[in-house]
Write a structure and sequence with these properties.
Protocatechuate 3,4-Dioxygenase, subunit A, four-stranded antiparallel beta sheet, two-stranded antiparallel ribbon, 1 helix, globular
Length: 141
């Protein structure tokens, strides 16, 4: 499983002036139960998109060929994003974001794409996102 997202000011690594850098990108092999765990920062935003994390899942056969590939995005409750962006630097140094979930063409009001977050006053946010893939389907992109 791979994940990637932009930083607090809306920049992705290896693009947009950050060419050759590799931050907020990672991959993990799932455990025997199909679970992967990532630690990252709260994603930022950029013009025209709601707050999201990209996710790609690949399954391989015994010869290491990709047999299944699925790509999606995880979104975050607008109220949680508002609270983070209002109270935490460097998020709070930016103007208000221009796109909320309801206006994001990828989100399309599909609440199944919302991460379930828990708040810890010391550790911050933790979340879970169950993901199922259709075995045998490979989608480019």
């Amino acid at each position: 499983m791979d994940i990637w997202h932009c930083d607090a000011v809306g920049i992705y690594s290896d693009v947009q002036g950050a060419t050759g850098e590799n931050f907020l990108r990672g991959y993990q092999t799932t455990d025997a139960s199909g679970v992967a765990s990532f630690t990252t920062i709260y994603p930022g935003w950029y013009t025209g998109r709601a707050v999201h994390i990209h996710v790609k899942v690949r399954l391989f056969d015994s010869a290491n060929n990709v047999t299944t590939e699925a790509t999606t995005q995880i979104f975050f409750d607008d109220a949680v994003s508002d609270a983070v962006f209002r109270s935490a630097a460097p998020y709070s140094s930016r103007p208000a974001r221009d796109t909320r979930n309801g206006a994001d063409g990828t989100y399309g009001n599909r609440t199944v794409l919302l991460a379930s977050l828990q708040v810890d006053a010391v550790a911050g946010y933790s979340g879970t996102f169950p993901l199922a893939v259709r075995v045998g389907q490979v989608n480019a992109g």
